[in-house]
Amino acid sequence: MTFSHWGRRIIEEKHEAVMRWVTTTVAETDSKIALQRLLENDVLPQQTANFLAFELRGNTSTETSIYELQLPLDQISKHLLSAYEKSYAYLLTPETFLADFLATAEGAAFDENFASKLQTFLVYDYFPLILGAWGENARQNDVGYVSRTEFVVKLRDIDELILHHATISVMVDLLDPIYDFHRHQSSDPTLPASELALFFEDKGLAQAVDEFNAKADQPINIREAVQIISVLLGTGFTVTEPPPALEPPQEIEYPETQYDEFLHDLQEAGVKLQTPEETQVALPSIERFISKKLRKKTILKVFHENRSEYERFIAFLNGSTSLEKAILNIETTLRMQRVDPTSKLAKRLREAATQRFCQK
Known about the structure:
Elements: H1 5-24, E1 32-34, H2 36-40, H3 46-57, E2 70-72, H4 73-92, H5 94-102, E3 107-109, H6 112-118, H7 126-140, E4 145-147, H8 148-164, H9 168-180, E5 190-192, H10 193-202, H11 206-213, E6 219-221, H12 222-235, H13 292-301, H14 307-318, H15 323-336, H16 344-358
Antiparallel strand pairs: 1-2, 3-4, 5-6
Helix pairs in contact: 1-4, 3-4, 4-5, 5-8, 7-8, 7-14, 7-15, 9-12, 10-11, 14-15, 15-16
């Protein structure tokens, strides 16, 4: 993982802000800090909290819950910085990050570790959904390993599939996570055009890369980015081929950075405290709108009697924040499972999603 000067500054601002909060809310006599305070009090964005939890599990005995851990301040700082780095790298360049996180220089094994890592991802949820189904199908066909090149190609295939449905609303959903990462600075954040060029380079969208690189370091908010993309959508994207191989990830040397001031409150530290007006009304599970007959057919024809993959599919649909995103998840899954998205079964699943979001 390497970052631009902008990206490194944002990562370190967030890291320093949370550490400032930690050090100002503990007793002077505390030599260790309980991880539970970071993981349960909405101090961190959920994706960052997931990366932090995953890293700590790898350094903790299986008998110990990470919520019971108490670590010295310097260790918390180290793991927290790593979690923020992973978050930014994943949000900005998901294909590249997933290739390095889920595969070695040689390839990816579809084992328990692979499945465990997939559970880390919340943002861009189509990646873990499709990769999980792909891995399960591979295991069922006695294929437990793929080369790194094949894995990289699969990641590009997934992005191509999503971009095939890239309405403006879908593009907003794709851009929002990386803009949301910057909302501690402003309610209407901007990114340098060069960062957006990296985002679209990761997806192989050559026209978008050229467009944003031509704007150099011009700050662009999400509305302006969508306007630019809308023009390109009108002409059609050309997705470049992924590279035949990627070099293994390199160790990062972190520069020391001094700050004249720190962020002084939780909001600027990335804490999201929802007001009652901002809290969304919970929707019922989509299974409420799926008949027993449709459930049985979906498990049989889409997931080949694999009930755990069906339940994973339902969980992703329940996590969809809009009808359009739910339908995109349905159609993406069906295509990856080689099920006709125009079939009667597909139509019934889309109707169930529509009923969930449009119930009276």
